[in-house]
Structure formats: C-alpha cells, structure tokens
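RETRY 2/3 - previous attempt timed out on the joint model. Re-submitting the same 1082-residue input unchanged.
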Amino acid sequence: MAMQNPDSEAITMWLHEWRDGKPEAMDKVMALVYDQLKQMAHRYTLRENPDHTLNTTGLVHDAYIKILGQNQRSYENRAHFYAIVSTCMRRVIMEMVRSRNAHKRGNGAHKVPLMDHFLISDTDADQIISVNDALVKLGEFDPRLAEITEYRYFGGMKMEEIAKALGCSLSSVKRDWKLARLWLQSELSED
Amino acid sequence: MDKEAWIAIKKYYAQLPEMSEEEQEALLRKLTEEQPEQAAVLRSLISDAGQTAADPVLDLPAISKIKDSDKPIDHVGRIIGKYKLTFLIGIGGMGRVYLADRLDLEAHQQVAIKIISAGYLTEVYKKRFDRERKILSRLNHPHITRIYDGGITEEGTPYIIMEYVEGKPLMEYVSDNELNLEQRLELFIDLCEAVDYAHRNFVMHRDLKPGNILVTNHGIVKVIDFGIAKILEDDSGEEDLTIMGYIPLTPAYASPEQLKGEPLTVASDIFSLGVILYQLVSGNKPYPGSTKSNMALAERIHHRSALPKPSSKLDPNIAPDLKAWQKQLKGDIDNIVLKALKDSPEERYSSAAQLAEDLQRYQKNYPVMARPDSAWYLFSKYARRNTAIVTLGLLVVLILLAGVGATLWQADKAAQQRDQAQMEAERAQEISRFLTELFDYSDPDRAAGAVISSETMLERGSAKLEGLQGRPNLQAEMYRLIGELYSKQHLYDQAEAHLLKALEIFEVQKGAQSLDPARTKLHLAEIYSTQNRTRETLELSEAAANLFAERLGKESLEHNKAQNYRARAEMQAGNYAVALEILLEAAERVEQLDLDNALVARVLTSLYNDIAGAYSGMGQRLEYLHYLKRALAIMLDTEGETSQNVAAVYNNIGHAYYFMAEYDSALYYTLNALSIADELYRDQANDRSRFAHCNLAKTYIYTGQLPQALEHAEQCYAQSLQVYEEVHPFTAFALSVIGDAYLAMGDHKNSESHRRQATSIYESYFQGADPKLAWHYWDEAERYFKSGKLIEAIDFKRRCIDVYRQTMPEATGDIAEAEYILAGFLLQSDSLELALPLLESALNTFEKEYPPGDERTLKAMRELIEVYEQSEYAEAAAQLSSHLSALEVEP
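RETRY 2/3 succeeded.
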C-alpha cells in the first residue's frame, strides 16, 4: 500500500476536529495548505505555458492530491478542502502581486530576487488588486457572494465544486455568481 | 452602485424566477420608470447576452495572469579579472556559481566564481565587502573551501573567487553511498572540526545546511560559503547602507535567535549543526514545513512544541535494519542532537569541538555530556564497555531512568519534598552499586563468550537477594527491581512473587502507610490488571491510590496512575459508569500537571485511552472517538508516528468508524495502522497487523470490494496463526471473517466450511459456556439467515441462547434480544406455537431491563399481539393492545 503524505492524516484529523466544533483546528490546516500551495503556485507560474487559460482547477486538484494523498476518498473533506485552498490561494496571489509592486515602487535599480521571480503586466496586477479590493467591499454586505467569488476567481473552482463545498444547489450558485459578477463589474467600472 | 440599490436588485432578482413572463415584464416596466438604473442592471442579469459576454478580468482565474519572467542574465563566457566563466554550476539563493578557467597561466587551474545577486550597492557597502572577504581568505583548513579573491564587477555586482570542489552535497553523498551510522558520524565530526576552526578565527558561517557542505569523491568534507552570509548583511544600522537582495537564511536550519532577528553568537551555528546531525542520523529534518513562508517561521518561533527525538523520526529508507539503527540512536545520540538543538543558546554545546567530542565519547562507549549524571546511566555505560549483558542491562537502565525521572519530577514539584528526593537519589546510587557488583562477577560462561539469557541473569540476581537480610531496605528495593524486570519480560508469576516479598519487607521496615509499600502495590496492581485478575487489581490499586492521596495529595501523578488501574479493574467488572467517573476526575487532575514531562504524558495518554474504553463499553461511540483522538495527539507528540501504540489507536479509531458505518474513514485509519505496523515489524506477524487486516476485510465487505476483503481476511488468518495458536478465538474469528467474505461473494460452500472450522475452534477453546461463544453463535445464526438457511439459523440462535443462559444468572437484554430474533425466525417457518413463549419471555425481560416505552419493548409487543391474534387468543391480544396504546400515547 502506498504511504500517504504524512500531512494528510493530520489534515484529516484537523478537519474532523474543526467539524466537531474546534475552530482553531482550521488555522493549522490553513498554515499547512498555504505553504504547499505557495510552492505549487510558484511552480505553476514558472511553467512555460503561453496559453493564458491555465488550468487552475488542476492546481487545486494537485494541491489536494499532494496534501491529502491519492487514497483520500471522503468527498466531504474534498469540498471543504477546495474551499480552504481557494482562501489560501487568494493570499498567495495577493502576496505575489503585492511583492511585485513593492519592488516596482522601490529603487529602480532593484532586481527581483532570483528564486522568486515572476512576471505580470501592470494592467493585470492592478486588475487583480482592484478585484481583491472590490471583493473586500462586497464581503462587507454580502459575504456569500464574496465567498463564491473567492472560490471562483482565486481558487479557480468549478461551479459544481463550489455548490458541493457550500452544500447548496448548482443553480443557486450559478445565479449568485451572476449577481456577484455583475456587482464586481459595476464596482470595477467606477474606478 | 449604492447599497440600497443593490439590495433592491437582489430582491427583484430572487423574485423573478417565480414570476410569469408577463409579471416579469410588468415589474421591469414599472422599475424602468422609477429606477431606470436598477432596471437596466436587472435586464442584463436575466438576458442571455449578459451571460455570454466574456469578461476578460473576472472570467479567468487570477493566477492565469501571472507568468514566468524572462531568463536572468547568463554570465557564461564573461571574463572577470583573470578568469573566464565557462559553465554555470549552481543557482542558489545568494546567486549563481560558475566554473572558471584562469587565463594567464598555462597550467589548467579551475576555480569557482560566485556572482552574488544583490541590488543596489553603496560605497560603504563595497568597502565592507572587501574587508570581509579578506578576512575569509585567511581561513585555511582542509574541510573549508578556500577563498582566493573577490571584487565587484563593472555593473556593481559582488563576486567571490574560490576553490573549486568537485563533490556532492552532504545528504546526496550519504544516501548515494548508503553510509551507515558510524560513517555518517565520522563525516559530521570532520564538519564540526571545520566549524570550530572558523569559530576560533572569529568567523561564523550563519547559513550552515547540507547544501553548503560538499563531500568529494574521496570522502573529504568541504564546507562552502563560510561567512558569506555575513558579507551580505547590513550590521551598521544606517539606512543608506542597506543592500537589498535578500538575506540567504535557510529557515529549516536557522536557530531560533536567527529567526527572530536577534544578535548571533557561535551558538547559532551549533544549532544548525544540530539540525544537520538530526537529518544525518534520522534521514528527516526536525522541523516540517521547511519553506520560506512567514507562517511556517512564526509557527516555529511561537509554538515550539517538544522536538521529537531523531530515533522516533527515523526514515526507513536510510536504515537497512530499522530496529538496530533505531536502537543505536536511542539514548546518547538522541540526547546529543537535542542538546545541540536547545532553544536557549546557553544550553547548547559551547563549541563545535565539544559537540564533536561528545560524539566521539559515544563512539567509544564513554558517558556523554548530553545527559544528567545518574548513577544508573554511568552503570549502564560501564556494563556495555565491559560485558555482554546488554539485554538485561538495557532493561535495568530503563527502569532506573524511570525511577530517576520520577525522583527528579518530585524534586521539581515542591520544595518540601526536596529532602525526600535527595534520599531517593542516594538510594538509587546504593542500588546501582549493588547491581554493579551483582552483574560484574567473573562468570565462566561469559569468559567462554556464551550469551547469558536475561532470565538466567535474573535468577542469579534473585538467588543473591537472600544474602541481603542484614540490609532489609536494600533487599526490598532489589526484590522490587527484579520483580519489575520480570514483569517487563512478561514473567508475571516470578514478578508477583518478588513484588510480594518486597511489599512484605517494606511494610515491616517503613510502615504500611509509607510510600514504598504504595508503589509496590501499584506495581502489583499493574501485573494483576494485565492478567485480568480483577478483584486483586481493584484491591491493590485502591489501597495504593489512598496512600498516595494521603502522602502526596490527590493531584500527584502517582495517585492518578493508581486511580487509572482502579478504573480499569472496574471496567473489567463491567462497571463502566463508575470507571468513567474515576477516569475523568483523574484526567482532569493530570491535565493540570506539566505535560512536557514524559511520565505525565504517558499517564494522561493511558487515562484518555481508558476513558475511550469506558465510553465504548457504554456504547457512546462519539465520545469514544473523541478521547481516542486526544490520546493519539499526545502519542504523536511524544512517540512520533512510527509506534505500535499509535498503530493500535489508529486501529481502534478505524474500528469505531466501521461501526458507525463511515467506511471511508474506517479504511483510512486502518490502512494507516497497517502501514505503521508493516514499518515496525517488517515481515513479522503481529497483533496490530492482524487486527488491521481483519478490520479491513470487514470494511471492504461493506464497500463491496470483495477481492480485497478476502485477501485481507486471509492475511488476518495467517497472522493469527503465527501470533496465536490454531485453537484460539482470534484465529477462529479470522476464519469467520473469511467466511463472511465468501458469503458476500455468494460462495456458500467455501463460506460454510470456514465458518464450521471457526465454530469448532471456539467450542474446543471455551470448553463450554462463555459469552464469546454465544456471540459467535449469534453471528452464525445471522449468516445462515442471510443465506436463506432458516433451519441452521434457528439451531444457532438456540445454541446462542443456551450458552447465554449458562453464563448469566438472570435474563438480560441480550438474551431477550436473541429470543426475539429467534421468535422471528420461527415465525418465518410458521412455528407459531414455538415463537409465542419466546416472545413472551423476551417482552418480559425488555420491560424489566429498559425504561417504559423503549423501542425494543414496543416492537416485541406489536409482534406478540400479532401472534396472539393469529393463534386466536383474542383476549390476550386485546389486553396487550390496550397496554401498548397506553405506552404509545405516554411519551
């Protein structure tokens, strides 16, 4: 039998604990997922992939398998896990974008550190930052729509997966995403 | 869009799907007049066009916008000073390393040039860089790569010219060459010498890690990048000095003070050496999650939990003989590594030379610095250097250490107990002297090189005890010690005899109320508990618990340990609620103690485990699981994962999930248990694997993976045969699981033949009445019923009830349940008149055993009413019906 990733049972246990009403268990999961994901995200951006439609759902799947192992069969865990990955993903991406901007604003002679270099156009970086800001605003009066957006925009999750993670119907997720998208469009066009 | 408008739109949008097209149109028309903006938004929401128009920002996941940057500058072919860069040999956090040839010499001289990736450099920095690299170039040691020269290129990039070493990074070298522990330590001692040399020249490395340590083809260690980290660091505190780039600190190997950004001393390098040594001897890094993320760092700085010993994190891939390797690590190596890794710099080795020296002492079997000077420890070293009594020696040391540990713990606890602790330490020394004499006599067998079994050794030791009559306290101590040694060897009869003697002498010498008799009683209780001697366990543990409470207080560890055994005895007697109360109270007290103490952790683990057991006995599976997991958490912390206790808990958790019909989780935990057991025992049959295979088989039957089920059932059987005997309930149980697998496959012939074999084993093992036999009959009846063989089902249910009646003085819920089921079988074969008395008897018992209105009672009543009616006992039926309806109304 293939050995599981040593982290996987810890995560499973924490997820169980979390469901049993221990919120602090989630912090532990997040810390672990965040580390893994950060490495993976960087590697993804380093791939020579001219195609912009990078399969991010693939990234989330890979994170799942890498962290929890192939043999993990609990779909309930998987849905929760995807949601956690999305939240972490948002942080990773924002960190990438912000550190880039920090370099840009700093001394013009600066080079980006060798290990962490990645490229993103000014427009794209600004857009990601605006979406993130808009999302913070949206979260203030409609947390559910913000959550769905986070899963979709930062986590790259499919509608079906979002529905599973939230425990609601596919059609209601689709409707909500439409609303969220519209709100974000109107918010972004105001800037 | 403002908030009100948004809320309004959301409301309309939610209403729309319920409206007819006309209603929708009406709403939109009305809205267009009142709030044209909202109407437009709403229209775009419901129109298909709005959906299909792609949004370049929102429709693509954010990460797709981030790509790899252009390749960084390549310096190959460049000329720097007298050198031409020919080949890129490495990329690291600090920059790139090139192979370079000297241009002005005929002789072929190769060097390595490191071009440091840094940002903007100030003039002050450039001066400092020159100063530092000149200091470094003075270092001249066989295990440190030489630095020849250096400078700053035209574009302002610093570079260093150094000795070119052809070699492999440390970890790669040791694994490629499959070095054994001894060889690994040799390399490490060379490394320590190099580090010590540099330290004596006032140069710290600051970034020691396996990647900075190369080993040449000839096996020579070479440390690279000595002091380079310092060069890149700003230590002036002036802002304009700052060079950005980034400090090439490698968190996995960095000391706590380094992570916190505090001033560094050589102790920081010692810490990094400790991490490297950890990895060298165990194959694993001590700190998981060794990425550069801030979160992992913060975790290490703020929530440092006790570091697992290297021996508990041994990677099976590095050790051909896992157990032997683990044994070598346990004790000295563990202690040496952990001393180097102490949180506080003062507690670490004061120099790399000292660390090397301690390892050399270990190699020569001399006592090492990294542990307290207990008499026992010195004795064990002595024994190992001089004799071959290793097996027993180890046991003695184990018990001694436990004793000394307890003593130290007591000493720590309260000032007024210090005197007593002092006395105990002296006592320990006296015993150690005696033991040294005991085992160090000239023995003809030993002279001939024969291996003396530990049992023989104990017998000889025991024979000498008679001669100690003049010194009764020492004699009693020795009886107790030898008793404990016997008990560790599972020789319980001898253990009991010795402990009873010790108890007798202690009670005369020190008085029945003193601590020594209490401790001896606790040991006896442990033995009785192992042997399932419930009454004796209860008696002795209770006595010990009371004595400890009186002398040490109820919060003392020993009192609660005794309570643990008391509760265990209560459980054996079936009094789960009583046991639970004792256990919960004990656990609450122990939780207040210092959980970093290994003894405390062990007692708490045992308490949690037993609490789980009590809940299981009471049928409360969620609580059971909860406490198992609490026990597991402590075990993982103290023992690491590769431990048979952890495997046992995984097994139990898996089993609980199986009963809760959560098969995914059951498989998950059980497979983990199995893989740990495989790792621990390799091909040896063992109880953990047996249990896991059996559980897996049963679970796979439920998930419909029948070939796997059969395979595991057969493995379970094979293991049972090796661990136990042919005629043993576990072997029989494995056979019936094989039977279950065949049954699920529809192969009745094979199923029945295996189950018949199981039945005959059970019958000859129990020789008559035992509840376990009744359970087997019960299950057999169910199996026959499932395969449509009613006659056999009825027969087995009858046998089940017979055995129950013989073993239990009064009718119980179980018997009633069996009668109820049997009645059901009989009704299916139209034997109304046989079913009727059974139902009456079952109902009678249910009413007595369970509260009014219990589902079991109601079920039996309904069934009985029907039988009365069919048998045309109208009156009885009517009477029972009215009784039933009264019950059904009440709740």
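The domain at 79-363 of chain B is CATH 1.10.510.10 (Transferase(Phosphotransferase); domain 1). Closing ticket.
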